[in-house]
Amino acid sequence: MSAKKTIVLAEVKNGELRNVSFEAIAAAKQLSNGGELVGVVAGESVQSLAGELFAYGVDRVIAVEDAQLKHYTTDAYKQAYLQVFDKEKPEVVVLGHTSIGKDVSPRLAVKLDAALISDVIALEGDEAPIMIRPIYSGKAFEKKQPAAEDGALIVTIRPNNIVAGEKDESATGEVEVMSVDITDLRAVVKEVVQKATGGVDLSEANVIVAGGRGVKSADGFKPLQELADVLGAAVGASRGACDAEYCDYSLQIGQTGKVVTPDLYFAIGLSGAIQHLAGMSNSKVIVAINKDPEAPIFEIADYGIVGDLFDIVPLLTEELKAVLV
Ligand code: FAD
């Protein structure tokens, strides 16, 4: 495969680059086959973020600065990215399979007449790498390798799966500040009000403590929150717990909730329905706590504890506190 000019669309959250941007650079390196790697960061006052993109290996950075890009909107970002593509003519574009990536990537693919391979979790090989993506809610994996005649390619990568490269703080490069022409916006975000959850962001957490209907009430989540606090973990939930109004739907993990891949996942008082597994079965280590030894979650758990969660979770928290705090 010849060298390919590759653009990485970095994602900014609360004024910082999201980790998935660095993972996208690692994927882009493999896909570019030695071609130029251009990082694109869009927003308001974002050029200061260029240094981190260089540290993870891009050759050049384009900072698209515009007050209308302060908050993500489909129209504004699509217009901005297309103007960058028009100027740069990338052969490959890589971005995160996040809410934003899922929203904007198909629109960019249509406009560029590009192939789109979404939700990639691994790349195999250096020359013309094969991309692996889960299908049927993670029950099977599909391997994709675009043909040379397919033209431009857009790839979205699932957060927390592809390992970012080593950070080199000394790396630098050229930063170009680009202005774009954004018109006819159908929606404008005036303000973003953060939910006062205060905790660790579920989609980027390395450790997740998830509860199900077995926690029995909103108060039943308290021991799970205490365990999460000791571990620096995020709290998640099954849909069973959300439907029962024990917690907010923003915590739901699964087919119709968030897809997560932490290093460590505690599945507590949840049965392990296939729709829940679709959102967490790629976690590196799964610990299940359930009073039913036949609960399906034990089939995919690396460690299982059979018993009442209200006995086990506080004990576990005490033991971990003694070691970690
Ligand atoms: P249950 O299945 O009721 O399991 C509760 C578990 O807690 C049981 O295993 C029980 O043994 C255990 N337990 C009870 N008391 C204790 C105790 N004191 N100590 C220890 N263990 C205890 N679900 C999701 O999670 N995410 C999704 O995204 C999702 N999407 C869906 C999409 C569709 C189209 C459909 C049809 C369903 C979807 N579901 C989803 C729902 C899913 O099918 C299950 O109904 C749901 O996951 C069950 O939640 P649960 O495991 O908490 O509850």
TrEMBL record:
The protein's required cofactor(s) are namely: FAD
Set out the biological process GO terms recorded for this chain's protein: fatty acid beta-oxidation using acyl-CoA dehydrogenase
The entry's FAD-binding residues are 213, 238-239, 252-256, 269-276, 290
GO molecular function per UniProt: electron transfer activity; flavin adenine dinucleotide binding
Instruction: Cite the InterPro entries for this sequence.
Output: DHS-like_NAD/FAD-binding_dom (IPR029035), ETF_a/b_N (IPR014730), ETF_a/FixB (IPR001308), ETF_alpha_N (IPR033947), ETF_asu_C (IPR014731), Rossmann-like_a/b/a_fold (IPR014729)
Domain annotation Electron transfer flavoprotein alpha/beta-subunit N-terminal: ranges: 6-191
Return the CDD domains for the record: ETF_alpha
Q: What is this protein called?
A: Electron transfer flavoprotein alpha subunit apoprotein
The record lists the organism as Shouchella lonarensis
